[in-house]
């Protein structure tokens, strides 16, 4: 994210709005993630100024919590569950198939900006294992054989 003066003002405003809360850092970072889609290093530097918190501490928080992203995410975020139930029922094979077809590793976004692949530890859908979530839509009992069809569904949306 290029931090232009307008974005600097917006981040400063977010920091000022939440500065007096008991734990402002998480709230500020969540709002930045929500508004911009990710938390860049430049944004962390502005938060550091706004909240008087070291950049290293902010970076530690952003990289600790998996809901924060250091890079822009694709239009469709593909979250493959690799929690215990999903893993035991073949979640890794599903993830591997997404990697193969999208040509990205977990945490990366396709070159066209359409898909971001995430491997997550649990989505709370153990009875549906292995499960995949794409922008809030859950695909239960996913198999590697179903992956191409799911991706085709989203690519067809883009072709319209």
Commentary on this structure:
By secondary structure, the protein is α+β, with helices and mostly antiparallel strands. It has seven helices and four strands, in the order ααααβααβββα. A four-stranded mixed sheet has the order 2-1-3-4, with helices on one face. α1 crosses α3 (41-51) and α6 (91-102) crosses α7. The two termini are 29 Å apart. The model has no long low-confidence stretch (mean pLDDT 93).
List the keywords:
4-stranded mixed beta sheet, alpha+beta, elongated, 160 residues, 4 strands
Q: Which strand order do you get reading across the main beta sheet?
A: 2-1-3-4
Total beta strand runs: 4
Which stretches are low in confidence, meaning pLDDT under 50 for 5 or more residues running? none
Figure out the total of helices.
7
What helical percentage do the residues reach? 40-55%
Q: What does the radius of gyration come to? A: 18 Å
Order of helices and strands: HHHHEHHEEEH
Please state the oligomeric state of the protein chains shown.
single chain
Strand content: 5-15%
Cα separation of the termini? 29 Å
Largest sheet: 4 strands, mixed
Shape, please?
elongated
């Amino acid at each position: 994210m290029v931090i232009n003066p307008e974005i600097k003002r917006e981040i400063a405003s977010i920091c000022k709005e939440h500065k007096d809360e008991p734990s402002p850092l998480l709230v500020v970072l969540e709002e930045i993630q929500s508004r911009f889609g990710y938390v860049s290093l430049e944004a962390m530097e502005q938060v550091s100024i706004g909240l008087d918190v070291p950049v290293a501490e902010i970076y530690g928080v952003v990289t600790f919590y998996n809901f924060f992203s250091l890079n822009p995410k694709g239009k469709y975020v593909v979250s493959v569950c690799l929690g215990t139930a999903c893993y035991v029922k073949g979640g890794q094979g599903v993830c591997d198939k997404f990697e193969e077809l999208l040509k990205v590793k977990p945490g990366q976004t396709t070159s066209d900006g359409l898909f971001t692949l995430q491997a997550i530890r649990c989505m709370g859908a153990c009875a549906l294992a292995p499960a995949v979530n794409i922008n809030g839509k859950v695909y239960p009992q996913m198999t590697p054989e179903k992956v191409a069809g799911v991706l085709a569904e989203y690519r067809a949306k883009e072709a319209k």
